[in-house]
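Work package 3, deliverable 3.1, input record:
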Amino acid sequence: MAAIGQAREDAALWAAAATDPRAFGELYERHARSVFAFCARQTGDLALAEDLTSIVFLHAWRKRRSIEIDCGSALPWLLGTARNVVRNQRRSTWRHRAALSRLAAGAARAESGLEDDSLARLDAQRRLRDALEPIARLPPRQREALSLVVWSGLSYEQAARALDVPIGTVRSRVARARAALGAISPVSDVASREESP
Amino acid sequence: MSNLTIPPVPELSDESLAARHDALLAELRSVPQRRWRRVGFAVGGVSAAAAATSLVLALVLAGPGAQRAFAGWSATPTHVTARDTAAARASCAYSPSGAGPDARDSPRTRISPRAWHTVLTDVRGPYVVVVVEAAHGRARMSCLYGPSGSASATTDARTHLLSSSGDVFRVEPQAPPAGRVEVYTASKSAIAGRRGARFSQIEGRTGAHVTRVSVILRGGGHIRASSSHGWFFAWWPGSARAVSAEVRTAGGEHLQPLHHGRA
């Protein structure tokens, strides 16, 4: 979960981003990894997750003047947007295909001196899919709640904002997901702690 | 499942994040001029190449719709220029994953575009197929370029992406015995938005000493494949099935039945 100091900066950065792409760039640097991880765990596809992450930030850029960050951190809003983008992934990627192509080309040029990690990525992709296999059987709403609260580190309140549902709904979805998975693990304690005031 | 472990997602490195950050800012700065235009290409499915002797028969098998849709196509590969390969390779490797109506068939793992290299180029009249691979042959992708719309066959039209597809393999497909060929993928596709633009393709490995491969279609069409780096590839308008291959080695030619199951 975002620290209070960072949360204040997020709100300030978001306001500054209305006119300054560099401020928006800072938000990207701060949250891109979390958005990417969320998308990857929702789709099980690293390549698609990269595209969806780009779409989330393109969308955020377009909405920067009309959206207010009202709970400090921009992450809940970004992950809420990511959830919608993941749900409409085919339409989203098709709609933004030209921008995605330019972004991939631009990133490739910038990365041209870096070491080729193709094999490592293939293996990582396989490990991720294997790990997601049991989770894929959960209903999408439970999977989203579980992902936001347990793996993305949002509090129940933040997850409720991201999903635009009451906090009790998030709690019950996470609980049902855990019950369905029969899971008792160290990471589940994270959410239990955050639940406390 | 007794454990709620965190599904492992590889973290974007600082360098990679910085590269994407820079690309994003460049994109955002260009938006007022570009406005994220809704133009682009139709994405379908294609892969690698072969030799041909009976163009007329192949086109008859393809049907009148496919003939019109692929005007200028030839059953024998034509001359490949460096320009064909370079333009197609760059564009093919940069295709966004998940984009297009046939996105399910596109490579599901984005590999850095600089990691792809061209293994085969197949030119048939105004149509260019480029096959690229990465990760030591474990990832392959191919793109078909050609004239857009009903199409006059001009060279410049070769840069219009009509269709692309790819796959990621657990292990690199092994070569068949010497003098033999083995089908790796065979499929039928259609180009989105182009009535009657159905085509078929076949890709496989060639064993040692194979110097030429021709694909024989059910009904008698004869398509010469392009071959390179131990692979052959051919495509043709329509949906006729490839039933056998005419394989040439230094010792002569023989006919080999084609089995379409994946190796």
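Confidence is low (pLDDT under 50) at residues 184-197 of chain A.
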